Amino acid sequence: MFSRRSLLTCLIPGLVLCLKPCLAQNEGKVSLRFISFPKSEDPVKVKLWVGEGKFLDIEAPSKWLSPPVSLATAGAWAVGETANGPDGKPVFKELGRATAPASPEQILLLVRKGKDNADGFDLVALDARASGFGAGQYLFMNAAKVDVAGVVGEEKFVVKPNQHMIIKPKIPAGEHTVHTALYFRKDDEAKPFFSSEWRVSDDARNLIFFYHDPETTHIRLHAIKDYIP
Q1: Residues 135, 48, 42, CA angle at the centre, nearest 5°?
Q2: Which pTM value belongs to this model?
Q3: Do 88 and 150 fall into the same domain?
């Protein structure tokens, strides 16, 4: 029979070896890029929480991805604003949070919930590697209030409000475009609102945002093509 002390002596070295890979993952670096919605001429300016009492000023454009910043890996990303507390030290007010993927290359989407930053953000953190969101793929982000469905080539998808989906349409041999048809749900019926030929590139990925036109309430889309070096 093993005594309790001898059993712990045997188990602790193995436990330490088991923990080392987890600690190593937390000590890595990540290349993080930003993009925002709704579409605007000016980038969204907020602070990214990067550690206890540490904040990074970031700018998230809406027409292209920001240049990458190198940061320590984190289990989640949070954006917000700061104000001085009673003791004169900055206090962080969180406006949005997302779980971070286990990837050295990431994209953080900031989808503003209202007219101002103070209304908060829906955050989406993406794996930006080729195996996550790479060339030839389409990301659909539904910022509208209705379900949106579509057919891109032979690929079908449905994305609910405040949700996203990534697809990679198959391209027939010798072709470079696919027919795309988009629909929104109204009274349990699929209403068409877009039909076109989309080019699929082997050196670019595509971000598509669905939203309601603030003046007409019609469903619109905002498309961004990001070329990958």
Answers
A1: 70
A2: 0.84
A3: no
